[in-house]
Write a structure and sequence with these properties.
Structural class: mainly beta
Shape: globular
Distance between the termini: 51 Å
CATH class of the largest domain: Mainly Beta
CATH topology of the largest domain: Immunoglobulin-like
Largest sheet: 24 strands, antiparallel, barrel
């Protein structure tokens, strides 16, 4: 454990060498402001005006080609911002109608990014496109992530004009968390996205190329006085009605029989006792508003697949759950009866703590050095998770604890520190050490590992990154003991050590197709704790950004990977690219690999392809069609004992998904989804018995009316058909009718 412990010793925080912040002195509104996209309200004439902007992409902090102007003011309850974004061709503005957060980089949008705690680490994005469609997210410099899962109460309205488009925002102070101070000082970035032949990005501040943070480059706003200091309550009760149809006797091919309609209800409550603290409570929470997860190909995969958390109760201060080792993954709390959570800040400390009663019913990851398995969580648990982070300038030191106490005396307890040290504006060191204490359930009927045994383990991680305008590199090291468990997290691999390095050189042409070209080399090596090699890789590649808002990465890899008791070497080309050729055809994506691959079921080398294709098509500003397809196949030679089999296709796995959404306005839409998942296998080429065909087809139709993200009406129907392996035909598997009503009461 020594390679991280040394770095956890007390450290000094060095000054950052970046552009000095501009300070905006904001004044109270001199009159009422109506949020309608019309900037003629008299109060805007007296508001703070910002008309000095910079193009940070595709050029390097140059004067923008288009004029941008922002205004800011506030009153007793709201922060206001308005924008005029000039455009010489307003008819080319890309602003389709869409559901909340469905605002892609291929569309015109803009707004404010607010760091109300003024710590230079975390900020909330309040952005809108030219139709008033909202996008909000949390951007966190400590992890480098931008998470659009959290939603906030705020208003936006926009209008396309003869000279461009105008935007107005009104953000309640009750949606923000800020220190107890008067006057307030906040960090702020003003932003515009302008996609045409390239993706142009403009800010009211300079962003240095090659820096190691984004929010830290913010400007400041001062003069905010007399802001409310808490006492806001939001209560959102809900009611659902659900009817489920299943095959008689749970046998495919039988007629579907509807169970009696089930009526359910619950409530979510958020209370802000002061401006810097939020307390969340939930009783019998309902998560049915979450769109079903996009299917992923699991054939020939060794480790569990990660899906993002989308449930509202877990998303206050979501960045505090993000640590170098993913010891917190709230989707492991499968079916909570109730939950209580507090999130806030005191002094230079941020914290979050959550406790929940989980009825169980989900899957628990059983990690290993060369693959992971699952076990049914057929028991209830009490879950507690907490993290406190102490900030040193732009660096921090933190402590995380997660606890799961299950019926029957089983438990999993994880505890340890993590840190981030920003040495300067180019160097960052991040690390974490965790220890775990586990008593498994005494349920060998669910998993062989679950025999009531006690296990103790550790996990360590350190990452060093260096970024300049032209040269970047990063290196990381991991050490996970084979008995480490994080049942409240997502840790699908244990019992190994890994070292990784990547270095790159970036060029920024001012003419031609590409405006950014990066050449890179990397190396990766991991071994089991007994010294057996698990994986080794040597790669070289190129990445570039250019016209049509394109981004491309190509990598040639020579790597060796363990399968069973063998280490097999494969040569692969890995690729990913995306581009937007027009307003109608946007966000076209291609990714995958080609070359040699490993048949992990039978421990041999083959040749195959993995490909993912996605496209968004907008025939009108109201209709959006999304198509996604994943394809994977592998050809192999027969094993010595398969003398009667010919060389051929081991398996072909496919996923096709079509999603059509018609959005009437910013509050109402109808959406239909059809998804086909199937896998075909050559049984003669497998050592063990396996089904030749598997798969299912699911379809759903949803009508939604949403005044905001907690006041809404959903009406939906879903259908699922599974492959009957005996006759290789789709048979009805389930049918659902669904309604949900929720209303947010605020005080």
């Amino acid at each position: 454990m020594s390679f991280i412990v040394v770095l956890c010793l007390p450290f000094a925080v060095h000054a950052q060498t970046r552009e000095p912040a501009i300070t905006f002195d904001i004044k109270r509104a001199t009159g009422p402001i109506t949020i309608d996209g019309d900037l003629s309200d008299a109060a805007w004439k007296d508001a703070l005006r910002v008309d000095k902007w910079y193009e940070t992409n595709a050029t390097d902090n140059t004067e923008p080609k288009m004029k941008n102007v922002a205004w800011m003011t506030y009153d007793d309850h709201f922060f206001y911002a308005a924008f005029h974004f000039e455009d010489p061709n307003p008819e080319k503005i890309r602003a389709p109608f869409a559901d909340r957060d469905n605002v892609s980089s291929a569309t015109d949008y803009g707004g404010v990014i607010l760091d109300t705690r003024n710590d230079g680490k975390t900020a909330i994005l309040f952005l809108s496109n030219a139709r008033g469609i909202q996008y909000d997210s949390v951007s966190d410099d400590t992890s480098g992530n931008e998470d659009s899962s959290p939603d906030f109460f705020w208003e936006s309205s926009a209008k396309i004009t003869k000279t461009g488009w105008d935007l107005e925002l009104r953000i309640p102070f009750s949606s923000l968390r800020y220190k107890k101070a008067d006057p307030q000082t906040w960090g702020i970035l003003l932003y515009r996205n302008y996609p045409r032949d390239r993706r142009y990005q403009m800010f009211a501040n300079k962003l240095p190329k090659g820096g190691n943070c984004f929010i830290c480059n913010e400007n400041k706003i001062t003069g905010l006085t007399g802001l409310p200091q808490g006492g806001h309550i939001v209560a959102a009760p809900y009611m659902t009605v659900k009817e489920q149809g299943s095959p008689r006797n749970d046998t495919l091919g039988n007629r579907l029989v509807n169970a009696p309609a089930k009526i359910d209800g619950g409530i979510d409550v958020k209370w802000t006792p002061n401006a810097d603290t939020a307390i969340d409570g939930t009783l019998n929470p309902d998560f049915s508003q979450v769109e079903s997860d996009v299917a992923a190909i699991s054939a020939n995969q060794r480790f569990a697949i990660f899906f993002s958390e989308k449930r509202p109760f877990f998303l206050e201060g979501v960045e505090l759950f993000s640590t170098p080792i993913q010891a917190v993954y709230t989707r492991t709390i499968t079916s909570p009866r109730f939950g209580l959570r507090s999130t806030g800040k005191f002094g230079d400390n941020d914290y979050t703590a959550i406790i929940a009663s989980d009825r169980g019913g989900g899957l628990v990851i059983l990690p290993g050095p060369n693959g992971s398995d699952f076990a049914n969580q057929d028991f209830s648990s009490t879950v507690a998770i907490g993290r406190i982070r102490h900030n040193f300038g732009l660096s921090y030191l933190s402590l995380l604890g997660t606890f799961r106490e299950s019926e029957g005396g089983a438990h999993n307890r994880v505890l340890g520190p993590d840190f981030q040290w920003r040495i300067n504006d180019k160097e960052t060191v991040t690390g974490q050490v965790l220890v775990s204490d586990t008593k498994t359930p005494d349920r060998p009927d669910l998993a062989a590992e679950w025999n009531g045994q006690t296990m103790k383990g550790h996990a360590e991680y350190v990452w060093w990154t260096h970024n300049t305008k032209h040269i970047d590199w990063y290196t990381e090291a991991k050490d996970y003991s084979d008995r480490f468990r994080a049942d409240n997290g997502f840790v699908p691999q244990v019992g190994y050590r890994e070292e990784f390095f990547e270095g790159g050189y970036t060029m920024r042409p001012t003419t031609g197709f590409a405006n950014r070209i990066r050449l890179f080399l990397n190396g990766d090596y991991s071994a089991a704790t007994n010294g057996d090699r698990l994986f080794a890789d040597r790669s070289a590649g190129i990445g570039f950004d250019g016209k049509f808002a394109s981004s491309t990465r190509l990598r040639f890899s020579v790597n060796s990977v363990r399968s069973g008791d063998k280490v097999l070497t494969r040569h692969q080309l890995l690729y990913s690219m995306q581009f937007t050729p027009s307003n109608m055809f946007s966000n076209i994506q291609l990714s995958g690999s080609a070359g040699e691959d490993v048949d992990f079921s039978n421990t041999r080398l083959g040749r195959g392809v993995s490909a993912n294709v996605g496209a968004t098509i907008r025939p009108t500003d109201h209709l959006e069609l999304r198509y996604n397809q994943s394809l994977s196949w592998l050809n192999v030679k027969p094993l010595p004992n398969q003398i009667d089999a010919d060389r051929g296709r081991l398996f072909t796995a496919q996923v096709e998904r079509i999603r059509a959404t018609y959005t009437f306005n910013s509050k109402m839409f109808v959406r239909g989804i059809v998804q086909n998942v199937r896998t075909n296998r050559n049984q003669e080429l497998f050592l063990n018995s396996i089904n030749q065909h598997s798969g299912n087809v699911t379809s759903s139709l949803l009508f939604a009316y949403k005044l905001n993200w907690q006041t809404l009406l959903f009406l939906g129907v879903g259908d699922e058909r599974d492959v009957d392996v005996d006759i290789n035909k789709l048979q009805p598997a389930s049918r659902q009718l669904f309604m949900k009503v929720s209303y947010a009461f605020q005080r």
